[in-house]
Amino acid sequence: MLKNDLITKNPLGAFSAEVSGSDSNMRMGLVMARAGLGKTAILVQIALDNMLKGRQVLHVTIGQNIQKTKAWYDDILADIASGCEDQRLADLQYEVMRNRMIMTFNESSFSRPKLEERLNDLIYQDIFRPSCMVIDGLDFATINRQAIEDMRDLQQQAGMSLWFSALTHRDKTEVSAEGVPVPCNEVADLFETVILLEAQSEGDSKIFLNVLKDATGCVEPGKSLRLDPTSMVVWGTTF
Amino acid sequence: MKKDLEKVRNIGISAHIDSGKTTLTERVLFYTDKIHAIHEVRGKDGVGATMDSMELEKERGITIQSAATYCTWKGHDINIIDTPGHVDFTIEVERALRVLDGAVLILCSVGGVQSQSITVNRQMTRYKVPRIVFINKCDRTGANPQRVADQVCDKLKLNAVFMQLPIGLEANLEGVIDLVTMKAIYFEGDNGEIIREAEIPAALVAKAEEKRELMLDAASMFSDELMEAVLEGTPTEKMIMDAVRTGTLSLELAPVFIGSAYKNKGVQAMLDAVVRYLPAPADIENIALDINNNEEEVILQSNPDAPLVCLAFKLEDGRYGQLTYIRTYQGTMRKGDTIVNSRTGKKVKVGRLARMHSNEMEDIDVAGPGDIVALFGVDCASGDTFTSPEIDMSMSSMHVPAPVISLAIKPIDNKAQGNMSKALNRFTKEDPTFKTFVDHETGDTIISGMGELHLEVYIERMKREYAAEVHVGAPQVAYRETITKMAEFNYTHKKQTGGSGQFGRVGGYLEPCEEKEYEFVDKIVGGVIPREFISSCDKGFSASLAKGALAGFPVTNVRCVINDGAAHSVDSSDIAFQLAAKGAFKEGYGKAGAVLMEPIMKVAVEGPTEFQGSVMGSLNQRRGMIIGTLEENEYTVIEAEVPLAEMFGYSTDLRSMTQGKAEFTMEFAAYRQVPKSVSEEVIAAVKKKADEEKK
Question: What ipTM does this complex have?
Answer without folding.
Answer: 0.80
